[in-house]
Amino acid sequence: MFLYYSKYFIKYLFFSKGKQKLLFLALLGLFLSSFALLVLQSTMTGLQEKTIGRSKSVMGSLIINISNDDDTEKIYEILDSKNILYFKEYEVELFLTYGNNVIPVMAHGIEDNSVSFYKNINFSEGIALSYEMSPRLNVELGNNVSLISPSHSDPMLGDIPSSITLDVSDFYASDVPEIDAFHVWTRLSAIQNLVSSNSVNRIRVFNYDDSKALKQELSTLINKEKIKTWEEQNATLVWSLKLESTVMVFLFVCMSLLVSLCITSGHLLFFRKLKTDLVSFWILGMSQKEIEKFSFKSVNYISIATISFGLIIGSIFLMFVDQNGSEILPRFFVDRKIPVILSFKAYIISFLIPYLISIAFSISTFNYFKKDLDYLGQIRSV
């Protein structure tokens, strides 16, 4: 029975001479809502993941701060047993000087450059600076720069801060502003010589997804406060990116509420045109509850089909952009080609928000129509 009723309902909606244009606008709004929500979330997720990925490729997904009293050998054993990519380093805040120019920097002394970001950087014979630092110091390749540590003094010269002189052997670009502004890299032995120590104070873990589980395992060997995931180190950035996504989804929810006005008005006008036909079904033997239930189901399924169609078209559009998209963003953007990441969460949100809004307003409209429809009165009027 429902199948025949639905066929009549859909034929009347799409093929009758008295088609209700306002209801078509409501369906178009549902289509655009699901389409736009999917496109928005997928592109924003792509841009955010690219930013996070660039930062993690430089700073690591997990940072372990170690000291001389920690059992570092067991830490190395755990990391090696899991085939985790990591390296040891000495990190220290210093002053970088060239001529009369002085800037504060975070210096990293490392000896392993097998990580993808470090493979193309040459710091084995000197120091690698960012392209952003070059104009600030007015320095070029081959120039001698000095690293000064106010926290360490030269044992031979008393209270004079320790310093070393290194050649600028390379420039790098991480495309992460906070890294390019302050971080420099050189060989581990140079930093150890500057601070008069043969130890390391950091272990950086790279390309490891389950950082939280690894942190929990390592906390049995070292104080948990010394182990920081990238997300914990950059809590403000993570919170900002989540807020950005939440605000954008909220704005689209507000826009979807405008679509609900078309849904309410369209349903009222549409069902008023169907009054006589609905009464005819009642005369032919259908109960009032069946008519109301089948009418609501038909509206519900049409909404689901419209939203699903929006998701399908949105997926096709995003796949086309991902495979054939050109560099459309301005030159000062790092990602000039829009990155796309399709996720199950994006599909769920893109479906549920327009669907729940449409159903909520459909229920309120339908309840009003049920009270307004008088079957006997409609027969008398005919």
Question: What report would you give on this structure?
Answer:
The radius of gyration is 32 Å and the shape is elongated. Helix content is 56%, strand content 18%. It is built from 13 helices and nine strands. The longest helix is centred in the N-terminal third of the chain and has 39 residues, at 21-59. A six-stranded mixed barrel has the order 2-3-7-4-6-5. A hairpin with a 7-residue loop joins strand 5 (144-153) and strand 6 (161-172). With 382 residues, it is an alpha+beta fold.
Entry keywords:
382 residues; alpha+beta; six-stranded mixed β-barrel
What is the secondary structure topology, with strand pairs?
Layout: H1 2-15, H2 21-59, E1 62-65, H3 72-81, E2 85-98, E3 101-110, E4 127-130, H4 133-137, E5 144-153, E6 161-172, H5 177-182, E7 183-187, H6 188-195, E8 202-206, H7 211-218, E9 227-229, H8 230-233, H9 235-273, H10 275-283, H11 288-324, H12 344-372, H13 375-381
Parallel strand pairs: 3-7, 4-6
Antiparallel strand pairs: 1-8, 1-9, 2-3, 2-5, 2-8, 4-7, 5-6
Helix pairs in contact: 1-11, 2-9, 2-11, 2-12, 9-12, 10-13, 11-12
